[in-house]
Every structure is written in structure tokens, then in C-alpha cells.
């Protein structure tokens, strides 16, 4: 038992040199390795390590939030990320970094280094095509959700994972507070542009919005449909010219599938609201539809072909009711959409007025223009919460209408 | 570590003599104790032990189903019963036997012996008043469900219990198969009077019934609202002149609160269908309403007064939407009722045509009369599954209509 110590680049070399399998992947000796810290998230340390014959990525939890050392936090979050990666990697081959090692004393996860990848957030901000990765992500959520759900296996196979991931209370608390609670109450973690004061006050005073947030809180905590990623925003996705990988599963938990879908949709919608380039808006709209359609068709395909041994909605039980089976499946997917639209709205709200805000509006210099664009994003979210859209077409149509700023708005550089 | 051995009366004495605290409750020495086996359930051994100064009840799991030694079963079910008892006893004081000891090697639970109590099933079959115990049971379900739910505490307090009880896979499998699956498919465990053949075939061929059963299966496995008893029929309740106690929590799991409510309602409804005594039917109808009304008012009262520290539906979040908070609470209770009516129906069906049948019809000698009464019970259940009743009044009204046998039916002794 070695006491936990926070790694620095030298510490990373020591750590890897002591682990033969990992050291062999790098080749040579510790003095031949280069270590680069790339931590850019809020929570953890991330190092990339380059050796003569290979590379590695090393991630370690800190005993506090990385960007706020006063906010203390247990170390176990990399244990949940490691467990998530080991569970999901075989279900969605080639769509995560390869898991290599987890050290439960140092809380260090070692995984494949994604060379030549950037985060989807960065790629999108530079104008990358959003459609192709959205198709892959729709398939990823369908596979990882379906294959960890009660629709794919007997409940006995779900029980150990449900039990284990319910222990991920630290990061679930972050979601419950930062995403689903704080934006709707006074809290020192909230902040926003003064020009949005009236909008925030109106949102909080709207009983329909509060009621929907309440219902979403309940869905989040009491609907363990599948193992979720739990933080599927564009910073948790890395892309290269040809590939997409989902990283950072430390928020993983059993929950409503619409939560993962909603977070992804939220970030596309925010990017849409943040630009006034019409072609870009169209590409992002197409990406939203592509994500959702791929999710639906892949999920339904898996349901029809890979439900062996499951307890729920089995073809045997439904042998006299095949039509009802189709109806129930469609009803389930509609429920996922309903959840997704709600959670997307909550994610948009929190990225505008909560603790960890989106960088999508950072390119807008003029504060008035920035506030105008944030206002339309907020009003789209409030609209979704007030009155749930029936389907993805209604969702994108509202996005178009709500974020179509009047032409009097001063143009900004995109 | 002592290897597991099945107890007999002598073994019970040995077991208790070796445990000072327990032996002292009985007083005297082992030779002064009387042991009486009272096992009458399907699964376990139960012994009552009488000593000069006290009594005990000793329950041990067998490595198989008690009434079917070929049906092998893990021993851990008394561990879940013990955990349930320890969790629920302080939440519903005086409504369970007192927990005294659990031996995890012998799988022996020792608890207070309920002297002068009989099962509610036995009491009802002898004409006992069903209303007073139903009021107490409504309060019991309200307290045990509310106080273990996300409405009463932060989710971090729920997580360890959710994790632990999700391990109760053996008995959850019994529920999934025997209650929610087998009756709707060919299975050697099913059996029924030949006169019901056409009714069973019609039930299985009805797509609406199959669809509702499918939805109930999903609710059961993916709606962890509260810690359930999991088998709350009249044989899991003991009553004396003045007291009610809930026993036998070995099926406990996190699930939809309507499951506990539904099982209790089912057994009152079956008793109603099994008698043709009008006054008795009225008393049972009143008991059904009393149970449900007490559950609702107690649950809502707790929600308004004991929700401190919870994450869901907090008065702080809803300070601008008090009316919506009331609406959401009422909506939640309606959802519990909807579940309860469905699970009640499933329980009635399985007690008529599945593995472990009810004894309520045993007093009817004439097979035709018996089949007629079972048929009305079955048709009431099918009616509930086909078309959900809106509220408890609709539930009891249908029970009255569906089980009101035409007067041509041959009378039987009650
Ligand atoms: N396997 C990898 N290969 C290459 N780079 C990676 C890898 N994993 C993470 N990174 C880089 O490290 C950065 C931080 O990683 P990650 O998002 O997992 O950290 P985090 O602190 O948990 O973030 P958050 O606060 O969003 O939870 C990523 O943005 C990415 O640039
Ligand atoms: N604490 C107690 N005091 C007195 N008698 C008890 C007590 N607990 C159980 N009994 C008696 O033992 C019988 C069997 O108990 P119980 O229902 O717990 O057993 P079981 O085998 O688990 O039943 P099931 O098959 O319904 O799960 C009861 O019907 C009751 O008569």
C-alpha cells in the first residue's frame, strides 16, 4: 500500500517505470520518455507520455477540483471512469480509448493515448463537420445504452453494475446540484452577464419550468434504464480525421438514456445559437437530426436482434401481441426523446448561467451581441422546459425559430 | 467459520445456547426450552422457542425451496430479510417483530416471537374485521416507502441500500418469473381448474393485457422509488387483538411503491371474490378504500413534513411554484395507484393460475362453484389490466360489478 501522491511529470515517469507492461509499451527507459500535461478539464490531471515505441495517457484524480483547490473531493472518481471504460469498451469497439491499467491506490487510470485527436468542442469551434461524428455518437449511445440495459440481458446481469455505479455519489452530486438544481435557485456558483438578469428571473419565476425541472430531477435519480456516460458533452469526445472516441466516463451511473442524448444535443444546440452563419446553423441542425435518427434506428435494431435472455419485452411473452411490442418499443423511444429534450434544456441553462460555462460564446467580442445570443439560447431552453417538443423535427424547428435573431442585431465575427 | 447445517428443534437449542444474549432472553437452560416448528410458507424453516422467561422466533433459509427440495436456491435470502427488518423497524416502530440477531454463516435470523398473533390470511378466513388492519397497513406502506425514498433524504443516503438490495436477485427472480411472466406463457409451474381453460387462453391472447404486463415488468425492474417489502400478502402480516406486524421481508428490493400496495389490495380483492356473503364483501371493499386512503394521506403528510435534506421536489426549488409542487405530488400518488392496480391484477392472476395459489377458494366444495368464483376474480384482474381504473372508487366499483355472480350460481358454504 503506497500512500496517494499527486503526480507531476517526473512522478508519471516513476509510476510507469514501475509497471512493466506499461513501460514496455513506451519502449526504452524512463529517461527516453517525454511527459506532457494536457489537463484542461475542471477535475483531474491528465498526462500524455511519449516513448520510443509507443504512447500512453495517464489520468489521476486530485483530492479537490482541479480548477478550485478549496473544493475538496474524494479520489474515487477515476475508479468509476476505469470501470465505465472496461464495461463500455467491448460493447462499442473502437469508440473509446483502450483501457490499459487502473491503480486503485494512486487513483491512476492509464489508457491508450489518442494521438492526432482533438476534442469535438475544439474541432467544432474551428468549423469541423458536425454531422459525421454525430452519426457515430448516435450509434455509440444506442449501443452502450442498449447493451447495458434490462432489454439486453437478464436483470441479474445488470444488478452488480447498478450496485457498483450507484456508489459514484460524488460526481452524481455534481450533476444533481450543478445541472439540475443550482441554476434554479440563488447560489454563489451561478453567474451570468448582467444583461440576462431579467431572463434568469423570469425563468425561475415560471412555475411550468420549475415543475419540469422537478420532474427531470426525479427521472434522473429514479430511472436506471442503462449505464450512462453521464457527461456526454463535446469536451468528452475526441475526433481525428477518421475516428471518434468517447472519453471521461467518470460521471457514469445507471440512469435515463435521454440524459446522455440530451447532453449531446444541448452542445450542438448551443453551438447553433452561438453562430450567425446560416450554413453552419444548417449543418448543426442536420447533426442534431442525424444523431437522434441514428440513435433511434440503432437502438431499435439492437432491440430486435440482441435481446436474448432479457426479462423485459421478450418475443415469447409477446408472441400473441407483436403489434403491441412494436408500439411499446416506439413508446419507449418517445420517452427517451421526451427526457432528452428536457435534459438538453437543463444542460443549456447550466452552461449559460451555472458553474462550468460553455466557451461557445467566447469568440463574440461585443458584450451586447454576446448577451443577445446567450438570451436566445436561454429562451430556447426555457421553451423546451415549458412545453416539451413532440419529436426531433419540433425540436430543430424551435431551435431555428428561437435562435433566429432579428437582423438589427449587430453582426459579430465568427 | 462453521459450515451451514439445516436446523432441527435440537439444533435450534444448540444454536441459541451458544449465543448468550439470545439464551438469556429465554431464561433457564436449553433443557428448559420448548421448540415448535411453524414453517408454513414455501421457502424457509421457522421455529418458535419458549423458555422460562421469554420467547424467540428463529428463521433459517434452506438450500432449496421448502416445499420442493428439487428447486435449489441460494441461502442468502434471510440476509436480505434481516437487512430489511433492521432498516424498516426504526421507521415503522411497533409494526414489525423486533430484530434480535442474524448469523451470516448459518443464515439464521432471530427475532421477537409474536405470541398470540395469527397471519392476517388466517384471521380473514375466520371472518376477522379487515378494516382496522388495512388502516394500519396503509400507514405502514406510507412510512416504510416514503422514509426509504429519495423524497425523504439525499440520494447519497439511498445509494448503499439500493446497491445492497439489488443483490437480492434470487427472490427478485421469483417475482419476475412467478408473478410477472409465467402466467402469461406455457410453463409447468402453472395449473388451474379445467373449467378456466378458455379464460386463461383468452387472457393470454389479449394484446392489451400482454402489453400492460410488459409495461409492469419494466416498471418493476426500473423504478427504484423506495425499499419495498416485496411480498406484502396477507400471509406476510400477523395480527393480534390489538396489533399488526409485518413479517417476512425476504423479497425486499428497491422498486415501485405501487407494487407493495398492489399486492395488499390483490389479497383483499381475492377474498372479496371468494365470498358470496354481502356484508363480508362490503367490509372488504371498505378495507380496500381504507388501505388506499390511509396510504395516500400518510404519504402526503410525511412528504409535507419530513422531506428535509432530500434532493427531489424540495420546497426551496418550488418556492415560486407551490401549486405545481402539489400537482406533482398528486401526480406521483396517481402513478402509484396506476402501478398498484396493475400489480394487484398480476398478483390475482398468479394466485389463480400460477405456482403458489391462494387458499381463499379452498372452502368451496363444489368444483363448478369454485371455478365460477375464480373466473370472476380472473375477469376482474383481466379487466384491470385491459383498462386501468382511474382511482380507488373505480377499482372497487369494478370489483363489485365483476365479482357480482348471477344468482343462478349454486350457493356454497362460507
Ligand atoms: N486518452 C487520451 N488521449 C489523448 N488525450 C486525452 C485523452 N484523455 C484525455 N485527453 C486530453 O485531456 C483533456 C482532459 O481530459 P478529461 O476531459 O478526461 O479530463 P477531466 O478533468 O476529467 O475533464 P472534466 O472536468 O470535463 O470532467 C481532454 O480534453 C483531452 O485533451
Ligand atoms: N416473528 C414471528 N413470530 C411468530 N410466528 C412467526 C414469526 N415469523 C413467522 N412466524 C410464523 O411462521 C410462518 C412462516 O413464516 P414466513 O412467512 O416468514 O416464512 P417463509 O417460508 O419465508 O414464507 P413465504 O414462503 O411466504 O416467503 C408464518 O406464517 C407465521 O405463522
Automatic annotation (TrEMBL), chains A, B:
EC supergroup of this enzyme: transferase
EC number of this enzyme: 2.7.1.100
One MF term in the entry's GO annotations: S-methyl-5-thioribose kinase activity
Keyword set, alphabetical order: ATP-binding, Kinase, Nucleotide-binding, Transferase
Domain Aminoglycoside phosphotransferase residues, every copy: 34-269
Superkingdom, natural source: Bacteria
InterPro entries: Aminoglycoside_PTrfase, Kinase-like_dom_sf, Methylthioribose_kinase
Family: Belongs to the methylthioribose kinase family.
Subunit structure: Homodimer.
Protein name (record): S-methyl-5-thioribose kinase
The species this protein was found in: Acetobacter sacchari
Gene symbol of the encoding locus: mtnK
Amino acid at each position: 500500500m503506497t500512500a496517494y501522491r499527486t503526480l507531476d511529470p517526473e512522478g508519471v515517469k516513476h509510476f510507469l517505470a514501475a509497471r512493466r507492461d506499461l513501460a514496455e509499451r513506451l519502449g526504452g527507459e524512463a529517461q527516453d520518455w517525454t511527459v506532457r500535461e494536457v489537463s484542461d478539464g475542471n477535475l483531474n490531471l491528465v498526462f500524455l507520455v511519449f516513448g520510443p515505441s509507443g504512447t500512453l495517457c495517464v489520468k489521476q484524480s486530485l483530492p479537490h477540483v482541479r480548477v478550485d483547490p478549496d473544493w475538496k473531493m474524494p479520489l474515487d472518481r477515476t475508479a468509476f471512469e476505469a470501470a465505465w471504460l472496461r464495461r463500455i469498451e467491448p460493447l462499442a469497439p473502437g469508440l473509446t480509448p483502450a483501457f490499459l491499467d487502473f491503480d486503485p491506490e494512486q487513483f491512476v487510470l492509464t489508457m491508450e493515448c489518442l494521438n492526432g485527436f482533438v476534442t469535438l468542442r475544439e474541432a467544432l469551434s474551428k468549423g469541423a463537420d458536425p454531422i459525421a461524428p454525430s452519426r457515430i455518437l448516435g450509434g455509440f449511445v444506442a449501443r452502450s445504452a442498449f447493451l447495458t440495459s434490462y432489454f439486453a440481458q437478464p436483470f441479474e446481469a445488470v444488478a452488480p453494475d447498478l450496485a457498483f455505479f450507484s456508489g459514484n455519489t460524488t460526481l452524481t452530486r455534481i450533476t444533481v446540484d450543478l445541472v439540475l438544481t443550482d441554476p434554479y435557485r440563488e447560489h454563489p456558483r451561478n453567474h451570468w452577464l448582467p444583461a440576462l438578469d431579467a431572463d434568469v428571473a423570469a425563468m425561475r419565476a415560471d412555475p411550468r419550468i420549475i415543475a419540469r425541472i422537478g420532474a427531470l430531477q426525479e427521472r434522473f435519480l429514479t430511472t436506471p434504464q442503462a449505464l450512462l456516460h453521464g457527461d456526454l458533452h463535446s469536451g468528452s469526445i475526441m475526433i481525428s480525421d477518421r475516428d471518434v472516441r468517447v472519453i471521461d466516463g467518470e460521471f457514469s451511473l445507471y440512469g435515463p438514456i435521454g440524459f446522455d442524448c440530451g447532453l449531446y444535443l444541448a452542445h450542438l444546440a448551443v453551438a447553433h445559437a452561438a453562430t450567425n452563419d446560416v450554413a453552419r446553423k444548417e449543418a448543426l441542425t442536420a447533426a442534431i437530426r442525424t444523431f437522434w435518427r441514428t440513435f433511434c434506428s440503432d437502438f431499435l435494431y439492437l432491440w430486435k436482434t440482441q435481446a436474448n435472455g432479457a426479462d423485459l419485452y421478450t418475443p415469447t411473452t409477446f408472441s400473441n401481441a407483436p403489434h403491441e411490442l412494436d408500439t411499446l418499443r416506439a413508446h419507449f423511444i418517445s420517452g427517451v426523446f421526451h427526457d432528452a429534450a428536457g435534459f438538453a434544456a437543463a444542460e443549456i441553462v447550466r452552461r449559460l448561467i451555472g458553474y462550468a460555462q460553455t466557451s461557445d460564446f467566447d469568440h463574440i467580442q461585443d458584450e451586447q451581441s454576446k448577451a443577445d445570443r446567450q438570451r436566445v439560447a436561454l429562451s430556447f431552453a426555457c421553451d423546451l422546459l415549458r412545453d416539451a417538443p413532440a419529436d426531433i423535427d419540433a425540436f430543430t424547428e424551435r431551435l431555428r425559430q428561437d435562435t433566429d435573431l432579428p437582423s438589427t442585431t449587430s453582426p459579430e465575427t465568427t
